[in-house]
Design a protein that fits this description.
This protein is an alpha/beta fold. Helices cover about 50% and strands about 15% of the residues. The protein has helices spanning about 15-25, 60-75, 95-110, 125-130, 135-140, 145-150, 160-165, 170-175, 180-195, 205-220; strands spanning about 5-10, 30-35, 80-90, 115-120. Strand 3 (about 80-90), helix 3 and strand 4 form a beta-alpha-beta unit.
């Protein structure tokens, strides 16, 4: 069986840190992957035009160009070479159905189309960490259990703020006051510390389970 190679596109460094830890445990030995971190999610360009400034590395702004490039690159590989693009991004306050339709619109405009899966964290990437509350508690023994137990999996509730309220001294109010750079650094720290302790098979986040399912499906022999 020829191994599968995964090209994973994520919107920030915290997502990369989490996936660098979790993906090998999902796909098993023999397969390869690379996680590409961008500097924010952005938005799909109007008429799916290629961005004028790819150097900004905003994920959705660059998506039409990225998928077209992957399509042409993959088409040139030897027959039987197995490779796929996995887009991982936050839903935030979007409508899931509408957002997925927009993403497939970008993919369907590619000729040739790369093998691609869209895996959307509901509401945010921190939902995947909160999918394993035992991992959170083991990492942060002083976490506020009342906050953790009140969390509803994959709910639209201000997910990173919920995690901050549970584990960060002073909660969201203190962390938000330090600005977005501090928030980003703390999100990366959560990913680095919680992900190694996660039970991948027992995670309760539906969107994380969907992500795992797509990776395993592609990793299976054709």
């Amino acid at each position: 069986m020829r191994p599968m190679h995964f090209e994973l596109l994520v919107e920030d460094q915290s997502g990369k840190k989490a996936l660098d830890i979790l993906v090998p445990r999902i796909i098993g030995d023999g397969h390869t992957f690379k996680v590409h971190a961008y500097r924010g999610i952005g938005r799909i360009p109007e008429n799916m035009r290629d961005t004028d400034d790819a150097s900004k590395r905003i994920l959705l702004d660059n998506l039409p160009k990225l998928l077209k490039g992957y399509g042409k690159t993959f088409a040139a590989y030897p027959k039987g070479y197995r490779v796929a693009v996995i887009l991982v991004c936050d839903l935030d306050d979007r409508c899931l159905k509408t957002f997925r339709n927009e993403l497939f619109g970008v993919l369907n405009a590619c000729d040739p189309r790369p093998e691609t899966r869209f895996c959307i964290a509901v509401e945010e990437g921190e939902a995947w960490l909160l999918g394993d509350l035992d991992a959170v508690r083991n990492t942060y023994p002083k976490a506020k259990d009342s906050v953790l137990t009140a969390y509803e999996q994959d709910s639209i509730c201000g997910t990173w703020e919920r995690l901050a309220d549970a584990v960060y001294p002073g909660g969201t109010a203190i962390l938000s006051g330090k600005g977005w750079q501090a928030i980003g650094a703390e999100k990366s720290r959560w990913a680095e510390m919680i992900a190694p302790k996660m039970d991948v098979a027992g995670n309760r986040s539906p969107s994380f389970r969907y992500f795992c399912g797509k990776l395993r499906e592609l990793a299976q022999p054709p």
